[in-house]
Design a protein that fits this description.
Layout lengths: L5 H21 L6 E3 L6 E3 H17 L4 E4 H5 L11 E8 L1 H6 L5 E8 L2 E9 L4 E6 L4 E3 L2 E2 L12 E3 L8 H15 L5 E3 L4 H9 L5 E5 L3 H13 L3 E3 L12 E5 L2 H10 L13
Parallel strand pairs: 3-4, 10-11, 10-12
Antiparallel strand pairs: 1-2, 4-5, 5-6, 6-7, 7-8, 8-9, 12-14, 13-14
The structure holds L-MYO-inositol-1-phosphate (LIP).
Organism: Scophthalmus maximus
Keywords: Hydrolase, Magnesium, Metal-binding
Catalytic activity: a myo-inositol phosphate + H2O = myo-inositol + phosphate
Length: about 280
């Protein structure tokens, strides 16, 4: 039987590549930076233009599909996942990196049907790396199959998380305490590349052994979640329960042993849900 969503995936790759070109062009010019929820939550005109390009290109072909886009949600659109075919879009994952010309900037799109991720595309557009994954068919970077490291020993692992200011002092304290706990296990190191989607792809291709985060959104996770799962990675909630796209938190790892050890070490804090207000 023909793959019902392959056509959507092909369009997604094409649109994501165009979006990446737009981002690379914008990097040649002055970038106008605006603030969203806090002085460290940034947005640019390029984030908005890229999201418009992606949504209008897809809507033209699939007018009945649903969309959850970072900038549309910022502008008041609902962030609720239904059974309908849904495109979950982060036009620039790593906006702070984009603003500083720090070279980890991606376009991330995940596609769900009946709330299940069918495919994910992450285009690390400065590195020109196109990560693609179709459910049950493996993960690829620029067409070459990728897989996780398979590392099971946390002492031999390189981990990823994001380090950023948190306006809630208690959360800020826990975030820093978690880093200290993990470093003293010890692990080989912790890195913080600045794009959740790229972090997941780095685990997917074996360049890092795990990534954890509390406080991101479904558009940061959807594309990369497909890539890391199809590359043989383990994905779960920070509590050890099943991964939930709307929960704003996750652990991905090269093995269940590393993921479960992180569950044991990490102290959770409440980050709310993407679909909380609906
Ligand atoms: C960003 C993430 C980054 C994380 C930020 C933010 P944006 O996404 O990918 O890794 O630390 O909290 O969510 O806002 O650039 O799309």
């Amino acid at each position: 039987m023909a793959d019902p969503w392959q056509e959507c995936m092909d369009l997604c790759v094409e649109v994501t590549r165009r979006a990446g070109e737009m981002i690379r062009e914008a990097l040649q010019k002055d970038i106008d930076v605006m603030q969203k929820s806090s002085p460290v939550d940034l947005v640019t005109e390029t984030d908005q233009k890229v999201e418009q390009l992606i949504i209008s290109s897809i809507k033209e072909k699939y007018p009945t599909h649903s969309f959850i886009g970072e900038e549309s949600v910022s502008a008041g659109a609902p962030s609720i996942l239904t059974d309908s075919p849904t495109w979950i879009i982060d036009p620039i994952d790593g906006t702070t990196n984009f603003v500083h010309n720090f070279p980890f900037v991606s376009v991330s799109i995940g596609f769900t049907v009946k709330k299940e991720i069918q495919f994910g595309i992450v285009y690390s557009c400065i590195e020109d790396k196109m990560y693609t994954a179709r459910k049950g068919k493996g993960a690829f970077c620029n067409g070459i199959p990728i897989k996780v490291s398979g590392q099971e020993d946390i002492n031999q692992s390189l981990l990823l998380t994001e380090v950023g200011f948190k306006s809630d002092p208690e959360q800020f304290k826990i975030m820093l305490a978690n880093i200290k706990t993990i470093l003293t296990i010890p692990v080989h190191g912790i890195r913080s590349p600045g794009s959740a989607a790229i972090n997941m792809c780095l685990v997917a291709c074996g360049s890092a052994d795990a990534y954890y985060h509390m406080g991101i959104h479904c558009w940061d996770m959807a594309g990369g979640a497909a890539v890391v799962t199809e590359a043989g990675g383990v994905i779960m909630d920070i509590s050890g329960g099943p991964f939930d796209l709307m929960s704003r938190r996750l652990i991905v790892a090269s093995s269940r042993a590393i993921a479960e050890r992180l569950v044991k070490e990490i102290i959770e804090f409440d980050v709310g849900r993407d679909d909380a207000d609906h």
